[in-house]
């Protein structure tokens, strides 16, 4: 087999949730008067948007200064953000602008209400519309930072856009507010660092196992990590699709399916649905009760198909939160082997029916005629027999257990093996031509020569006797005369 039962292909899935920082963490002060010093109209302000994966830690609220990301977090490059300034909020001349800021301040982040998700022109705050300037884009680089520079004091809206870095983002960060300047050790700072909440999860992984040696049942197992989510950014869609068109007989696949989350089985038609398209052979598993998906946990689906001899493969795809958002794929292959026997008369090459063989597992070196059978085969009228659905890789023994009537049993123990490099049907088929000799029969008595000799000898004696009698009679007659 290829791809160690096999291989598997996996990709990163970034699940961006709501903003992990509170408004205070984004530099929003409760009152401007609480901080000493006047705000100057600077023009060198900076907003650094940090885009990280966060597989193992939690970002704590920040005050807008640069913070240490959790261990294991990886920067995500190629994510575009757009910055919009609220044009009628002045944070330098008086408190009118700060009064607007207070309406979106609190212990929890307030999501901007925009008139357009892709190219907004205004934001609504406490029922009042405020104009937005034209957007400025920045894309995260290798360090995971999208930097907006040359900024003036003000209230800004940041919206996440396209992902050109192949990060497979499940859910974009929701738009969020940022205020400049921020508080930094009791003073104003014109640089803010913001950290939209991010968690990554591996894409689906897949394995296949031929649990039994000779029944051809292929057990496919798909594992998909569940993105970390919360009530503010819940899961909205979770689907697994597996193309089984090259995976063998699927007649029992749906009934064989078991779906678990963190080891606990879900209930079919209550927690999830499953469907198999009879034309395309695509298996679709849809989790309907998304509350059963534990944040940060794992979904495991297991199901079976049945094969004979050759290669079997399929490709599973995962869709999370959007029906078209393919967050990852995984492909795996498996193989099944076959042994065939052709039985012939050694003298005339005529095919023989009725020869029976057994196949044994030779994994532990049990290559003897007394090995335990895992399957049998008997030649038919055409003199052939076969046994397929053999696990690959595998080591096997072939032994004749019953010869055709009138023929001598072939007691040779034959061993054969399938390896991981054998991938074609020809390589996965072991063929044997086995001759049988006829049984010996007892000799019949000879029924001609011996009797003829006796008869010839007896006849000659009679002739001699007769001849002698004639001579005697003649001699007597001569004497009398």
Write the layout of secondary structure elements.
Elements: E1 12-16, E2 45-50, E3 79-85, H1 96-102, E4 113-114, E5 122-125, E6 128-131, E7 136-139, E8 145-151, E9 154-163, E10 169-171, E11 176-180, E12 182-184, E13 187-189, E14 191-194, E15 198-202, E16 205-209, E17 217-225, E18 238-243, H2 253-256, E19 258-261, E20 264-265, E21 272-276, E22 282-287, E23 298-306, E24 310-320, E25 326-345, E26 356-361, E27 373-378, E28 384-391, E29 394-402, E30 413-418, E31 429-436, H3 449-480
Structure description:
The chain has 481 residues and is mostly beta strands. Helix content is 9%, strand content 40%. The protein contains 3 helices and 31 strands. The protein has helices spanning 96-102, 253-256, 449-480, and strands spanning 12-16, 45-50, 79-85, 113-114, 122-125, 128-131, 136-139, 145-151, 154-163, 169-171, 176-180, 182-184, 187-189, 191-194, 198-202, 205-209, 217-225, 238-243, 258-261, 264-265, 272-276, 282-287, 298-306, 310-320, 326-345, 356-361, 373-378, 384-391, 394-402, 413-418, 429-436. A hairpin with a 2-residue loop joins strand 12 (182-184) and strand 13 (187-189). Mean pLDDT is 84; it is low at 1-36.
Number of strands: 31
Beta-strand residue percentage: 35-45%
Radius of gyration: 44 Å
Q: What structural class do you assign from the helix and strand content?
A: mainly beta
Percent range of helical residues: under 10%
Mean pLDDT rating: 84
Low-confidence stretches: 1-36
Shape: rod-shaped
């Amino acid at each position: 087999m290829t791809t160690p039962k096999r291989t598997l292909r996996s990709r990163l899935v970034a699940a961006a949730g709501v903003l992990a920082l509170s408004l205070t963490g984004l530099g929003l002060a409760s009152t401007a008067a609480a901080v000493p010093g006047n705000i100057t109209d600077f023009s060198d302000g900076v907003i650094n948007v940090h885009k990280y994966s966060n597989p193992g830690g939690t970002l704590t609220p920040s005050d807008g200064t640069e913070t240490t990301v959790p261990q294991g977090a990886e920067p995500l490059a190629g994510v575009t953000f757009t910055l919009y300034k609220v044009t009628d909020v002045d944070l330098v001349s008086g408190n009118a602008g700060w009064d607007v800021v207070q309406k979106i301040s609190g212990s929890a982040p307030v999501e901007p209400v925009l008139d357009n998700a892709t190219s907004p022109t205004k934001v609504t705050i406490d029922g009042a519309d405020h104009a937005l300037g034209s957007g400025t884009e920045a894309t995260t680089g290798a360090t995971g930072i999208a930097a907006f520079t040359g900024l003036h004091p003000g209230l800004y809206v940041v919206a996440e856009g396209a992902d050109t870095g192949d990060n497979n983002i499940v859910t974009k960060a929701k738009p969020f507010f940022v205020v400049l300047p921020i508080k930094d050790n009791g003073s104003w700072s014109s640089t803010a660092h913001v950290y939209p909440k991010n968690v990554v999860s591996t894409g689906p992984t897949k394995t296949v196992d031929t649990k039994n040696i000779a029944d051809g049942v292929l057990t496919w197992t798909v594992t998909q990590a569940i993105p970390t989510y919360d009530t503010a950014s819940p899961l909205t869609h979770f689907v697994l699709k597996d193309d089984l068109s090259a995976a063998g007989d699927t007649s029992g696949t749906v009934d064989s399916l078991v779906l678990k989350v963190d080891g606990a089985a879900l209930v079919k038609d209550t927690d999830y649905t499953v469907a198999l398209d009879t034309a395309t052979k695509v298996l679709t598993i849809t989790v309907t009760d998304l509350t059963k998906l534990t944040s940060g946990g794992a979904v495991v689906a297991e199901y079976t198909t049945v094969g004979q001899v050759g290669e079997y493969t399929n490709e599973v795809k995962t869709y999370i939160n959007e029906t078209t958002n393919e967050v990852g794929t995984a492909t795996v292959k498996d193989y099944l082997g076959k042994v065939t026997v052709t039985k012939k008369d050694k003298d005339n090459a005529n095919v023989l029916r009725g020869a029976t063989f057994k196949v044994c597992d030779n994994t532990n070196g049990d290559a003897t005629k007394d090995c335990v059978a895992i399957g049998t085969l008997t030649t038919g009228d055409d003199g052939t027999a076969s046994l397929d659905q053999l696990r690959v890789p595998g080591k096997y023994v072939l032994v004749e257990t019953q010869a055709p009537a009138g023929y001598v049993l072939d007691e040779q123990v034959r061993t054969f093996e399938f390896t991981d490099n054998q991938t074609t049907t020809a390589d996965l088929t072991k063929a044997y031509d086995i001759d049988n000799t006829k049984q010996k029969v007892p000799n019949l008595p000879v029924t001609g020569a011996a009797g003829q000799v006796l008869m010839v000898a007896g006849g000659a004696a009679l002739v001699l006797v007769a001849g002698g009698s004639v001579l005697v009679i003649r001699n007597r007659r001569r004497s009398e005369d």
